[in-house]
Amino acid sequence: MLRIAVLGAGRISRIHAANVAANPQASLVLIADPWRDAVDELSAQWGCEGLYDYSAALLRDDVDAVIIGTATDTHVDLLLQAVTVGKAVLCEKPIDLDLAKARHAVAEVERLKGRVMLGFNRRFDPDTLALRQAIDAGAIGAVRQVVITSRDNALAPRDYLRHSGGILRDMVIHDFDTARHLLGEEPTEVFVMASRLVDPWLAEIGDYDSVMVSLKTDSGKQCHINACREAVYGYDQRIEVSGASGVLFNDNQRATGVRTWTAAGTDTRAPLLDFFLERYAGAYRNELTHFIEAVTADLPMPTTVRDGLHALHLAECGLRSLASGTVVRVPAL
Ligand SMILES: NC(=O)c1ccc[n+]([C@@H]2O[C@H](COP(=O)([O-])OP(=O)(O)OC[C@H]3O[C@@H](n4cnc5c(N)ncnc54)[C@H](O)[C@@H]3O)[C@@H](O)[C@H]2O)c1
Q1: Closest CA to 30 of 77, 12, 82, 54
Q2: pLDDT (tens digit, 9 = 90+) per residue, 61-116?
Q3: Which of 90, 114, 138 is a domain's end point?
Q4: Is-cis flag, bond preceding 126, omega within 30?
Q5: Which of 81, 64, 52, 70 is nearest to 14 (CA)?
Q6: Is the CB of 303 under 6 A from ligand 1?
Q7: Distance 92 CA to ligand 1 centre (A)
Q8: CB within 8 Å of 26: residues ≥ 6 apart
Q9: Is the CB of 284 under 6 A from ligand 1?
Q10: Residues 94 and 127 in one domain
């Protein structure tokens, strides 16, 4: 039984708290956040303790591991504090928006031999796990190209966008990680095109809402990521992996697979699952299970802070490509 504290009481921490409470291999000891109302509500919901101070939570002897689901600019400080006092950590992405700060944090975690998993939940989505297994089993031969479509259903509020770090570091960071995971090699070239097709206001904060990213590895494998902050038909998440002897498709998910044929139309189906909390509900559960297994069995972390650094590094190179309008060579980390 792993004794877990959830740091944060916002959107993502609510998911983690619910999953810890439901997991038979874990116990939810406490939830901590300076946002008192949210802590009171969540701790009452799950029958655990509520604290208004992260540091106090980290000093508790009855806590083995912490999940960091707080705002991005608090991650580095909290994860280094946690590692220093010997707690295992599941930290939300991104490590930080600043590459130099993230690089320093990763060096510290590795120096202290910290047990930190980075929350790239999509790797644990049942369909992505199946894609990786099929690739490993040789179902399509050597991978040649990966195509990722990643469109949010609706543009996030402006206040969120202002602090997000931009579409590449905030949203496409997941897809950079998926690209690395499915290509099985590090991308060494990046080219990005970006536009403001949803909301021209994004120019005021130097951000974009629609991007196309091309990645290439030294052996020539390619990945294309198309991402948009809005898709009026719903949350659009698809992956295609082509190889020497076939193609794997990971299509969108819906509440049911039923198709209706009437005079009004054929092949009418339930809408796409609404947003990331619904679409990736299973991924968050599996992510937690993998974390618990890695900590309790002392196995390597399935996703590491170094994975987080690689994804952030690709986002930075993507920004450089945008600024220069050229293909950017990805320097070694
Ligand atoms: N893996 C995923 O799919 C996924 C999805 C959503 C969010 N996230 C990540 O999770 C983190 C939290 O996102 P969210 O959507 O839950 O945000 P949120 O705003 O809903 O919650 C953030 C929490 O951090 C606390 N907080 C904010 N600023 C703070 C500060 N300066 N000091 C101390 N505490 C502070 C708030 O009280 C709040 O409880 C972000 O890093 C985000 O990138 C990951």
Answers
A1: 54
A2: 999 999 999 999 999 999 999 999 999 999 999 999 999 999 999 999 999 999 99
A3: 114
A4: no
A5: 70
A6: no
A7: 8
A8: 1, 2, 3, 4, 20, 288, 292
A9: no
A10: no
Would you say residue 104 lies in a domain? yes
Residues contacting 3, CB < 8 A, separation 6+? 26, 27, 29, 62, 63, 64, 65
The predicted-structure confidence for 188-234, as pLDDT tens digits, reads as follows 999 999 999 999 999 999 999 999 999 999 999 999 999 999 999 99
Task: Compute the residue count for the chain.
Answer: 333
CATH number of the domain at 40, please: 3.40.50.720
For residue 27, being part of any structural domain is answered with yes
Q: Fill in the amino acid letter for 209.
A: D
Nearest-5° angle of CA 168, CA 307, CA 294? 135
In this structure, are 128 and 82 located in the same domain? no
Q: Could you tell me if 88 and 302 are in contact, meaning their C-beta atoms sit under 8 angstroms apart?
A: no
Report if pTM > 0.70. yes
Mutate to test the pocket of ligand 1, among 7, 11, 159 (most ligand atoms within 8 A of CB): 11
Ligand 1 centroid to Cα of residue 276, in Å, is: 15
